[in-house]
Amino acid sequence: MLYVKDLIRAHDAFLSDPEDKPSACNIGVGGKTSLLEFLDMLEEKTNRRTEVSFDDWREGDQKVYISDISRASEVLDWEPQVDFEDGIERFVAWYGGR
Fold first, then answer.
1. What is the pLDDT at residue 58?
2. Structural domain of residue 77, as residue ranges?
């Protein structure tokens, strides 16, 4: 859950000087937010709820995913500028205008 302009900034930081940079860095908000928390926030901002259903747990499913952005911060001098909630608000404003 990363605002797209932050992702573009990360790519630009790498492409501006790719010499001696690692070939992979985690890019993300860096915090922990579940899909259900994301849906709750969308509902709060739009007054609409997405229908959700659950199936059995599958091998390989992730219970939690947290992006460790320390390498990107160190070698790309990059960190997200748009926090999770602000990114949701911007998305809702953009999508609502479509």
1. 92
2. 4-49+61-96
